[in-house]
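ok here's the first one, seq then struct tokens
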Amino acid sequence: MRSKGWKLIGLLLVLSLIAAACATDSADDTEAPAETEAPAATEAPADDDAPADDDAPADTEAPAMDLEGTITVLVHQNPPMVEYMESFNADFTEATGVEVDMSVVGAGDLSTVTQTRLTAGDIDVIDVFGFANPVQDYMTGANPPNWQTLIDAGLLMELSGEAFVGNYDEASVADACTYNGGVYCVNLGRVSYSGMFVNDTLLAEVGIETPTTWEELVSSCDTVKGAGYKCMVVGGADGWPIFVGAYGLFGSFYPDQAGFVEALWTGEATWDDAQGIEYFNRLQTYASDMLDPEVTGLGHDAAPARYLAGDIAFMPTGVWQAPAMADATFDWTYIPFPGSSNAEDNQFLFGKYDQGWAVAEGSTNPDAALAYVSMFSEPDVYQGFVDATGFLPTQPTATLNSPLGEDVADLMSTFRVGFEQYWVAPTGAGQYSNGSVAASLFAPFNEFDDAAELAALTQADLQAGLDASG
């Protein structure tokens, strides 16, 4: 991957703009640039807008600013993304002379490590997930999310005056990166985590159609296992892939995810009402019957390799696993998880805004850090990132050129932000208060084997927090 059009002269011009922006910020840190001055998010810079080589200023007329030194970058573990970033880092160093020291941490550790390193002042560019879990007016006494505390503490740089922000669509900038009128990141992609990969070749061999309802899914698993094959696989050893694999089931029960969060807080819905108990019953079927017992020993990154053996019908997981499917020797599709008895309720993809870039306010090399994000945001570089990761693009000029893109193209109009992006537990709630993650609590992954009992415990733990918050 070599970035197209990143010629030295073009780079110097871009960096001169960055220098000017930084100088303005230094002159008055309290005044963020007006939003009306930012480039329109729907108008990505066209390649032909770049200065022609013969019109570029001579080297002696270039801005007197040289990038040097090293920048430190923090990202979360995602093998296709990490591989792409390693290649991009080499390109950035070749273009600028700036070395890149990249650290990779587990997704579950990213928030804690980010706060630690920002506080220590030894990080320049940070991989941040889309701004989620904002505290709503009805959430009495709830604690703000980590991203909000970082911004309130002045640890993230405000970016609304940076030209590269205009390369991203308005929705992603507003929904995933904006707080109190300021822009603090650029988001690199939406992901759906509520669907499942389907081994079409295996289903055809055993004589069944792609399931569109819960009952059809149950029957499909029975047929597949009866033919000597396995129903489902996820990375059960890591815990979280178990309940993420059931997010589609959850969404089919509660398609208005933000509304359900509010209903739980206000008492209009409970985890142990009739609908909730049926949801827990289906979670138990998924965890204890559909998932093959061998998944208890498989990590998340190992699950796709196991699925590629071809003897498993379904892999419920996020679209970020699509790059691994390039090696499949069987035909496959990606569909919404059919968790409802009504096929019309199984037409939605739920997900989140995934990885993004933020810059540390206390960066010791801010010009290079901004240049790093600017170069990455060039449309051709970003397109390479989308091709490598399978993220649903947040730049309007990018396309998802893959079999996955074909599968989800018609479903993108149904994309909805998922429950876990809205949910904030009441202060004082018990450990089981979030029923969206309850799949991993059933045997063989945990000790619970009674769905109604777990539903009641979940509601009791939630109620304890609601009572404590007044």
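and now the second one, same deal
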Amino acid sequence: MKTNKFLTLAFSFMALLAVTSCVENDDYSVPESQGNEENAALNKLLSKIESGEVELQTITQVKSNFVQYEATQFVSEIAVKGYVSSSDETGNFYKEFFIQDSPTDPTQTLKVVLNQADTYNQFNKGREVYIYLKDLYIGETNTGDDVVTIGGKFDTFDNDVLEMTSNQIPNHLFRSTTTETLMPVELELSDVGEEHIGMFVKLVNVQFPAGLENKPYVDPTDDFDSQRSIESCSDAGSFTLESSTFAAFKNELLPTDGKGSISGIVNKTYDGYDLIINLNTTDDVVMDGFRCDPLFQDSFSAANLDKWTTFSVTGAQEWYYNSFGNPSDSATMNGFASGAQTNEDWLISLPIDLSSVPSAFLSFQTVKRYGGNNLEVFYATDYTGGNPNTDGTWVALAPTLDTNEGSWSSWTDSGSLDLSAAAGGNVFIAFKYTSTSSAASTWEVDNVKISAE
């Protein structure tokens, strides 16, 4: 922690009776107005901001205090304003909400953690919120996840930021009477990045995999969070919808009969490794178009290469199924074994039927690790199963490939590759890997798709 502060934990009977919500009865409608006490507290803060006693900073300025792995206490008289982007009304968020810096075209966000459930009663989606930051903390609730969070305490063991207590909330967290309509940021799956964490976004041109038909949003065998795949109709991209097992919509069936859009909050998995989207409500899932099921697809989720054949021309290493991918599972080739080895290995699809379409397009994703040759990608219509150097007329394609040799997560979309010259019959897709005794990359291939449009 940056600021040394002795924290005294006081447990008493009165603490158990602390009010943790502005609503003290069973009326869970969003209040139309504020109470006198709440108005007075907000007006006092606004007066201090106007006089210059408290500096109103942007979320960008506030986030400049963030240091990964640390809980940093605010010691200056500063405040920040934002608009609530998430909602716990359906139980998919708990004792937390996100704010973004604008109702439209937001650029920055913050996560707020507090010892208050049903926050939508007070801090409903779109509500303008002010946070008086002095003596609060900025950091992460799960150290290392890079989700920048405002809280009231910190854990001395691992520096995790902890919730604002019920006694801190009335002195630091204020809502105005303004509730704005948030306009979601529209994104293709391939455009989602860490800069969108906490934002209300709309993932467009997407659908749930057909294999999820008659499956609910939440797998009944999961204990806490449940993940469902989302696939892009624009490219080979995929993403993950994560829902709490306590969500009110957990038993609703996924809409798999069309394609459309999914609006929600970009977030991280608990371990901080992967980006996900969380729903505020299933009303934000709109599947009103025809499905875009491909002519061929392999995400390697069957844990095998049964849709492919492997042909090793040179070297002992071969293509293999790998449980790691995007988000999991891939076809992988690595020519390194006690040092770089000379290899030429082909991964060739079984025949794919294009007889019913006038045009077709291939897409896939790759990640490259370590220095070495690039993959080569081909298609043929006359391959018969032999050595691909002499069997088949292979036409080279020009995909976009991963160039970041230092990351396992730099998955790169190939772009849409035209196979129309092969339409009307069968086509074979081939990935050719080569390595030398001085350089052997690892290549992972995932989410291979051939579509008619």
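notes on #2: The radius of gyration is 26 Å. The first strand starts at residue 55 and ends at 57.
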